[in-house]
């Protein structure tokens, strides 16, 4: 009878397991997901916490029968990366190992001194392996990556061979890297619902057979499009649909409104927006940007109560601008990519507006010396400008933008001299992953706030000056925001620039040696310099052939970029400002002369990390043996996050509660179980009833719970933790039951 009941339970649970493995796309317990490889063979789902001491839980689903590896890297390389490797061993037990990349180059990743990754479950079928684990955002372990809102390069790898031990992990057969944001809400959430809604309308903006040049890597392509005479809509989402095979060439797109200006003369005449010799004339009339997409960006879905107005009364024409990057000068590349807007005719309660802060794209204003590991430029939007606002501006999403040299960007908000915590920053910026950031809580800008956008560059690989320009090899420093409620009909902005005449003097030129040209420094080729041979050459020619830097020159230029007077172009509309209440700045309706950097009386200081004590699974701080470095689950208890002497791994014994909750059925004592095995039964009702029948020994004492291991491959005796002593062990069959940061059920 007992064997028949066991068979019945095994059949029911195995059926449930097969259904779970088939439903790999349904992850109600997770808030984020990403496909890491181009073929969809490495999927990762995760659920972050809300602070550094919270857990972040990951589930990796990989098309392999062997080991899988996931790492967190600052630059996409193994060197110094935080790596976790997991597999299901030959006996059917899941194993996990906390490791780190070698100090130099690629190679076998050694095990961490402290094992901070907690294995929650592992299972596999004939095609896939699924491993679930968790760790704290900040483990206070120098060998681990601190998980923040910065861009994280997820490095991944796998192999179809099962390791015989933690010392014998065969080299990967597949590997790659993908940048993502682990903490902030994903911009693509809710897209499937919008696409499936029959009331949703779409409007496609398409380029047609754009040919990329082979004599230069950068092409900005512009086209004027006339809008149909539809009634007013709200944009509720957008999607960039890149022509298959052109992913490496399409860098970013901007959609501008031209207002009520008649642009019909440009219809059907797409052309280069700007290059070294010309500017596409419509760019001067179309400056109100409606949408931005950049490389690495995914679908963008507005919050359910918000929409961006489109097809307004005076909105007849739009300008579509695309930045192409043909780095290898590949011949024969043509592109017909599409930017799709998703809209609704029913207005949403909250309308959004757009706001930009940054440095003007000018070659003598934005100058970055070569061979600098860290060089920072600054854009200021002072209180003299923001005081024009009559109500707060609630920023719910932002996009930071530089070109190839950018490594760190941030928005600083200063309120009456006190710096607030920066919610928009990225100390690991990736040029190839420029995704908008959704904030869990909007950034509220008040009238009178000072704003600073800082862009830090690494030019150590460059031998010549990098200057502000539109080419991929040139640089920019911009921050795009979207906010609510909408203030005006057009995009507002705040751009600041240092005195370019003084910049050129710092670089060694005298006033009579250069001419900024009729455009005042905006057009590159209109600027000329008298070089050391008394020849008139372009400014760029002088940068590349004559300019020689000294350490003193670089130091002076860096100080000038930060602290010198700047001219601020204030594009905010609103109330008049009494300048006597401000810092003696000179101004008119649009231009503000800022006498120096924005004063900060109390800079924001990041709080020190809190290293909490935790139990064996709550903290996941298993001591890894230097030779083994792998565990089924963590097996130490009540230790602080600091290095402890290595302890050898102990063999699994059913009466030692060493972290492996499953023992062979033959070892289950039917008459009862040790006290450390006691605990509430959290399995399905049928399992509870079966346990009651099987363990009806006539004695009033707990017995072993019969269940199925997370491998779904063999019937086992499940060793439950004691709820009083081991409350941190809140999981059954590898599924978390308690979390330190519970999420609402509908997340």
TrEMBL record:
Region of interest: Disordered: 621-663
Keyword Ligase: no
Record PROSITE patterns: DOMON
Domain DOMON residue range list: 40-159
Gene Ontology terms for molecular function: copper ion binding; dopamine beta-monooxygenase activity
GO cellular component terms attached to this protein's record: extracellular space; secretory granule membrane
Cellular compartments annotated: Membrane
Matching Pfam families: Cu2_monoox_C, Cu2_monooxygen, DOMON
GO biological process entries: dopamine catabolic process; norepinephrine biosynthetic process; octopamine biosynthetic process
Cited InterPro entries: Cu2_ascorb_mOase-like_C (IPR014784), Cu2_ascorb_mOase_N (IPR000323), Cu2_ascorb_mOase_N_sf (IPR036939), Cu2_monoox_C (IPR024548), DBH-like (IPR000945), DOH_DOMON (IPR045266), DOMON_domain (IPR005018), PHM/PNGase_F_dom_sf (IPR008977)
Signal peptide: 1-17
UniProt xrefs under Gene3D superfamilies: 2.60.120.230, Cellobiose dehydrogenase, cytochrome domain (2.60.40.1210), Copper type II, ascorbate-dependent monooxygenase, N-terminal domain (2.60.120.310)
Main location: membrane
The keyword Signal is assigned to this record: yes
Low complexity biased stretches: 625-661
Alphabetical list of SUPFAM superfamilies matching this protein: CBD9-like (SSF49344), PHM/PNGase F (SSF49742)
This protein's UniProt keywords: Disulfide bond, Glycoprotein, Membrane, Signal
Family matches, as SMART domains: DoH
Family per record: Belongs to the copper type II ascorbate-dependent monooxygenase family.
Protein name per Swiss-Prot or TrEMBL: DOMON domain-containing protein
Organism field: Plectus sambesii
Lineage: Eukaryota, Metazoa, Ecdysozoa, Nematoda, Chromadorea
């Amino acid at each position: 009878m007992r064997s028949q009941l066991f068979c019945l339970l095994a059949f029911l649970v195995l059926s449930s397991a097969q259904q779970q493995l088939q439903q790999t796309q349904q992850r109600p317990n997770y808030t984020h997901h990403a496909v890491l490889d181009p073929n969809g063979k490495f999927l990762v789902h995760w659920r972050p916490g809300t602070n550094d001491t919270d857990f972040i839980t990951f589930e990796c689903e990989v098309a392999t029968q062997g080991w899988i590896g996931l790492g967190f890297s600052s630059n996409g390389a193994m060197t110094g990366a935080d790596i976790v490797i997991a597999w299901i061993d030959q006996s059917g037990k899941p194993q996990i190992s906390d490791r780190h990349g070698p100090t130099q180059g690629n190679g076998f990743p050694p095990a961490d001194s402290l094992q901070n990754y907690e294995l929650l479950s592992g299972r596999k079928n004939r095609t896939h392996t699924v491993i679930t684990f968790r760790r704290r955002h900040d483990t206070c372990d120098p060998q681990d990556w601190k998980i923040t809102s910065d861009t994280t390069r997820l490095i991944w790898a796998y192999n179809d061979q099962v390791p015989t031990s933690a010392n014998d992990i065969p080299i990967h057969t597949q590997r790659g890297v993908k940048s993502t944001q682990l903490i902030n809400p994903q911009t693509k959430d809710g897209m499937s619902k919008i696409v499936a809604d029959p009331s949703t309308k779409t409007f496609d903006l398409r380029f047609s057979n754009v040919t990329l040049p082979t004599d230069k890597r950068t092409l900005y392509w512009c086209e004027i499009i006339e809008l149909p005479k539809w009634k007013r809509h709200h944009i509720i989402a957008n999607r960039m649909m890149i022509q298959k095979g052109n992913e490496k060439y399409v860098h970013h797109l901007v959609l501008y409104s031209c207002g009520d200006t008649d642009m019909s003369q440009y219809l059907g005449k797409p052309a280069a927006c700007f290059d070294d010799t010309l500017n596409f004339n419509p760019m001067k009339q179309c400056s109100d940007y409606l949408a931005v997409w950049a490389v690495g960006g995914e679908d963008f879905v507005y919050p359910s109560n918000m929409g961006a107005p489109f097809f307004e009364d005076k909105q007849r024409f739009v300008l579509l601008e695309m930045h192409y990057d043909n780095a290898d000068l590949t011949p024969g590349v043509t592109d017909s990519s599409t930017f799709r807007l998703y809209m609704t005719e029913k207005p949403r309660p909250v309308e959004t507006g757009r706001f930009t802060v940054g440095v003007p794209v000018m070659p003598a204003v934005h100058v970055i010396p070569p061979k600098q590991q860290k060089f920072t430029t600054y854009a200021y939007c002072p209180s003299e400008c923001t005081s024009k606002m009559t109500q707060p501006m609630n920023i719910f999403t932002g996009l930071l933008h530089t070109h190839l040299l950018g490594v760190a960007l941030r928005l600083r908000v200063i309120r009456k001299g006190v710096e607030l915590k920066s919610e928009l920053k990225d100390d690991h910026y990736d040029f190839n992953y420029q995704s908008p950031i959704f904030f869990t809580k909007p950034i509220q800008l008040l009238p009178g706030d000072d704003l600073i956008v800082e862009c830090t560059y690494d030019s150590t690989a460059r031998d010549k000056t990098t200057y502000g320009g539109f080419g991929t090899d040139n640089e920019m420093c911009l921050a795009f925001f979207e906010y609510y409620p909408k203030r005006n009909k057009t995009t507002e902005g705040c751009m600041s620039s240092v005195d370019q005449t003084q910049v050129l003097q710092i670089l060694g030129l005298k006033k009579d040696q250069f001419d900024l040209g009729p455009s005042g420094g905006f057009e590159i080729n209109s600027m000329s310099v008298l070089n050391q041979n008394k020849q008139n050459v372009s400014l760029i020619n002088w940068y590349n052939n004559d300019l020689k830097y000294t350490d003193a020159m670089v130091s002076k230029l860096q100080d000038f970029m930060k602290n010198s007077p700047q001219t601020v172009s204030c594009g905010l509309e609103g109330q008049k400002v009494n300048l006597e209440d401000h810092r003696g700045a000179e101004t008119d309706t649009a231009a503000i002369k800022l006498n120096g950097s924005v004063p900060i009386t109390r800079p924001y200081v990041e709080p020190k990390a809190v290293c909490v004590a935790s139990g064996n699974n709550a903290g996941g701080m298993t001591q890894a043996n230097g030779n083994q470095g792998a565990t089924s689950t963590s097996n130490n208890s009540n230790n602080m996050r600091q290095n402890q002497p290595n302890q050898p791994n102990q063999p699994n014994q059913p009466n030692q509660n060493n972290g492996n909750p499953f023992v062979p059925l033959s070892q289950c004592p039917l008459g009862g179980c040790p006290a450390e095995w006691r605990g509430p039964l959290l399995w399905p009702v049928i399992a509870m009833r079966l346990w009651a029948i099987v363990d009806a020994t006539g004695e009033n004492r707990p017995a072993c719970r019969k269940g199925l291991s997370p491998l779904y491959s063999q019937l086992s005796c499940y060793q439950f933790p004691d709820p009083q002593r081991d409350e941190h062990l809140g999981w059954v069959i590898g599924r978390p039951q308690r979390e330190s940061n519970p999420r609402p059920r509908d997340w």
